[in-house]
Protein backbone atom coordinates (compact mmCIF):
# COMPACT_ATOMS: atom_id res chain seq x y z
CA UNK A 1 0.00 0.00 0.00
CA UNK A 2 1.35 3.43 -0.89
CA UNK A 3 0.96 6.31 1.55
CA UNK A 4 1.10 9.89 0.34
CA UNK A 5 2.33 12.95 2.15
CA UNK A 6 -0.36 15.02 3.86
CA UNK A 7 -1.09 18.61 2.79
CA UNK A 8 0.53 20.04 5.93
CA UNK A 9 3.72 19.39 7.90
CA UNK A 10 4.33 18.96 11.66
CA UNK A 11 5.75 22.51 11.76
CA UNK A 12 2.47 23.90 10.38
CA UNK A 13 0.25 21.85 12.72
CA UNK A 14 1.32 19.34 15.39
CA UNK A 15 -1.05 16.41 15.91
CA UNK A 16 -1.25 15.09 19.45
CA UNK A 17 -3.25 15.31 22.68
CA UNK A 18 -5.31 18.50 22.60
CA UNK A 19 -4.76 19.29 18.90
CA UNK A 20 -8.50 19.12 18.22
CA UNK A 21 -8.40 16.07 15.93
CA UNK A 22 -9.69 12.61 16.83
CA UNK A 23 -6.94 10.06 17.53
CA UNK A 24 -7.36 6.60 15.97
CA UNK A 25 -5.14 3.62 16.86
CA UNK A 26 -3.73 2.16 13.62
CA UNK A 27 -1.51 -0.86 14.17
CA UNK A 28 1.56 0.28 16.14
CA UNK A 29 0.90 4.03 15.90
CA UNK A 30 -1.84 6.66 16.18
CA UNK A 31 -3.43 8.43 13.20
CA UNK A 32 -5.30 11.74 13.53
CA UNK A 33 -8.51 12.48 11.59
CA UNK A 34 -7.94 15.80 9.83
CA UNK A 35 -10.36 17.18 7.21
CA UNK A 36 -11.55 13.70 6.23
CA UNK A 37 -8.03 12.26 6.10
CA UNK A 38 -5.94 10.18 8.51
CA UNK A 39 -2.51 11.64 9.24
CA UNK A 40 0.42 9.73 10.77
CA UNK A 41 3.69 11.48 11.62
CA UNK A 42 6.64 10.19 9.60
CA UNK A 43 9.87 12.11 10.11
CA UNK A 44 9.44 15.67 8.87
CA UNK A 45 5.97 15.12 7.37
CA UNK A 46 2.64 13.35 7.87
CA UNK A 47 1.60 10.38 5.75
CA UNK A 48 -1.99 9.97 4.60
CA UNK A 49 -3.22 6.60 5.87
CA UNK A 50 -6.25 4.56 4.94
CA UNK A 51 -9.02 4.20 7.56
CA UNK A 52 -9.45 0.76 9.09
CA UNK A 53 -12.34 -1.46 8.04
CA UNK A 54 -15.30 -2.02 10.35
CA UNK A 55 -14.31 -5.65 10.93
CA UNK A 56 -11.04 -7.26 11.91
CA UNK A 57 -9.09 -10.18 10.48
CA UNK A 58 -10.30 -12.22 13.48
CA UNK A 59 -13.95 -11.40 12.58
CA UNK A 60 -13.65 -12.44 8.92
CA UNK A 61 -10.66 -13.64 6.91
CA UNK A 62 -10.64 -12.38 3.31
CA UNK A 63 -9.04 -14.69 0.78
CA UNK A 64 -9.79 -17.35 -1.77
CA UNK A 65 -13.35 -18.66 -1.29
CA UNK A 66 -14.32 -15.99 1.30
CA UNK A 67 -17.29 -14.99 -0.85
CA UNK A 68 -16.07 -11.47 -1.68
CA UNK A 69 -14.82 -10.22 -5.04
CA UNK A 70 -11.02 -9.94 -5.25
CA UNK A 71 -9.67 -6.81 -6.98
CA UNK A 72 -5.98 -6.31 -7.83
CA UNK A 73 -4.81 -2.98 -6.32
CA UNK A 74 -1.20 -2.05 -7.09
CA UNK A 75 0.96 -4.66 -5.29
CA UNK A 76 -1.84 -6.36 -3.30
CA UNK A 77 -5.43 -7.59 -3.54
CA UNK A 78 -8.45 -5.76 -2.09
CA UNK A 79 -11.72 -7.54 -1.30
CA UNK A 80 -15.08 -5.87 -1.98
CA UNK A 81 -17.10 -6.16 1.24
CA UNK A 82 -20.45 -4.39 1.73
CA UNK A 83 -19.54 -1.72 -0.82
CA UNK A 84 -16.03 -1.18 0.64
CA UNK A 85 -12.64 -2.43 -0.48
CA UNK A 86 -10.62 -4.09 2.28
CA UNK A 87 -6.87 -4.70 2.20
CA UNK A 88 -5.05 -6.62 4.95
CA UNK A 89 -2.42 -4.55 6.77
CA UNK A 90 -0.58 -5.49 9.99
CA UNK A 91 -3.37 -7.61 11.47
CA UNK A 92 -6.29 -5.43 10.39
CA UNK A 93 -8.00 -4.33 7.16
CA UNK A 94 -7.62 -0.87 5.67
CA UNK A 95 -10.43 0.71 3.66
CA UNK A 96 -9.23 1.37 0.10
From TrEMBL:
Chain residue ranges for the region called Disordered: 1-96
Domain of life (superkingdom): Bacteria
Compositionally biased intervals (Basic and acidic residues): 1-15, 23-96
Protein name: Threonine dehydratase
Amino acid sequence: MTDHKAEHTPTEHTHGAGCGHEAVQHGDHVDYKHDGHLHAEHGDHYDEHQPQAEHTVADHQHGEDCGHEAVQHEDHVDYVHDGHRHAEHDGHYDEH
